[in-house]
Design brief:
By secondary structure, this protein is mainly α. The chain folds into 2 domains: 266 residues, Rhopdopsin 7-helix transmembrane proteins (Up-down Bundle); 53 residues, no CATH class. Strands 1-2-3 form a 3-stranded antiparallel β-sheet. A hairpin with a 2-residue loop joins β1 and β2. α1 packs antiparallel against α2, α3 runs parallel beside α5 and α6 packs antiparallel against α7. The protein starts with a helix and ends in a 12-residue tail after the last helix. It holds the Pfam family DUF6533. It comes from Moniliophthora roreri (strain MCA 2997). Keywords: Membrane, Transmembrane, Transmembrane helix. This is DUF6533 domain-containing protein.
């Protein structure tokens, strides 16, 4: 580092390596705060539910996210200790952290596929289409991962021996495309949810009916689908700045990405589980309030349902079955 250019490059690398050290702590704090803020709802709505795939996925995403955030902090701060890192360790750890984050994202996308499947009344064509795209996005991820892993050694060869806090935050090749397949797939899922929401809203406005459970579920899904898509777009921008220098977003590490994906998904599943505790449905012009916790009908009165309302019996059964977290399904209620 004898020339001013070399000194400037080293200073830039050093400052870049300090950012993940701080941001990973922020991400862990955010994740733990959200856990403490929602643990009462988890105990109240999730724990009493019978065993089911949705219940398993809730616990998997929730606690895998916390484990992943702890791993980020331990890995980044351990690597900042002088003498810990070397060429092989940095080469191995880079794809490892990406794969760990991808497992979290794929788990979330499985849940989102099931939501879309339920919104389209268990359409087999929609399910197969989304499954093929999902597998394609995974294949694209692994292609980019392997492509960059083979070139990682040459990329960091000149910087690995510098006195940096951790592995060099250098990125090149097609690494900017790492999360593009997942982002594109997320856009497709969001498009499915948006179409159903617009269709439901149009029918409701024409018929003058109230906002029903089906409409509320659509809005809830739409919000979380959009939020996760935004997180993926931001993640792409973060990688682009390191590979192409196009944006001004620094390399934060994947901590905020891991936290946001996990928090958004668990909150979405908690909201759906809350709605499943006491469902109000319209069957043959009769409003029935069904308590899933007690398994009884708590109220029964006549209600006027506008013709053409988007909340039909088949829709309700499909939707309630989709987000039911192990409680007694409304479809089992005798009419």
């Amino acid at each position: 580092m004898t020339t001013p250019e070399e000194q400037a490059d080293f200073l830039k690398l050093y400052r870049g390596n300090l950012v993940p050290l701080r941001i990973c702590l922020v991400a862990l704090t955010w994740g733990l705060y959200d856990y403490l803020d929602t643990v009462k709802d988890e105990i109240k709505y999730i724990w009493p539910a019978r065993r089911s795939f949705n219940k398993f996925m809730f616990f998997w995403i929730r606690y895998y996210t916390i484990t992943l955030l702890i791993f980020d902090v331990v890995q980044i701060h351990t690597f900042s200790i002088p003498g810990i890192t070397n060429d092989k360790l940095c080469i191995i750890m880079d794809p490892t952290t990406r794969l760990a984050g991808a497992i979290s994202l794929w788990s979330v996308e499985i849940i989102m596929q099931l939501r879309v499947y339920a919104l389209y009344k268990c359409s087999r064509k929609v399910a197969i289409f989304n499954l093929l795209l999902f597998l394609g996005s995974i294949a694209g991820f692994f292609y980019v991962l392997v492509f960059n892993a083979r070139r990682r050694g040459a990329l960091i060869a000149d910087a690995i021996h510098l006195p940096l806090p951790g592995c060099p935050t250098l990125h090149s090749g097609v690494e900017w495309a790492q999360w593009v397949p997942a982002t594109a797939y997320e856009g497709v899922l969001f498009g499915f949810a948006l179409y159903k929401t617009l269709k439901s809203t149009t029918l409701r406005l024409r018929s003058g009916s109230r906002v029903g459970l089906y409409s509320l579920l659509l809005r809830d899904n739409l919000f979380y689908f959009f939020a996760i898509a935004c997180v993926l777009i931001f993640n792409n921008l973060m990688v682009v700045v390191c590979t192409r220098g196009i944006t001004r977003v620094p390399w934060f590490s994947y901590g905020p990405f891991h936290a946001a994906i996990g928090i958004l998904t668990t909150r979405m599943m908690l909201n759906i589980s809350k709605a499943a505790v006491e469902d109000v449905v319209f069957i043959d012009g009769v409003s029935k309030s069904w308590s899933n916790r007690t398994g009884t009908v708590s109220t029964l009165h006549i209600a006027n349902q506008a013709p053409g309302s988007p909340l039909t019996r088949s829709d309700e059964i499909s939707v309630l079955d989709s987000f039911e977290m192990g409680h007694t399904s409304i479809s089992k209620m005798d009419t």
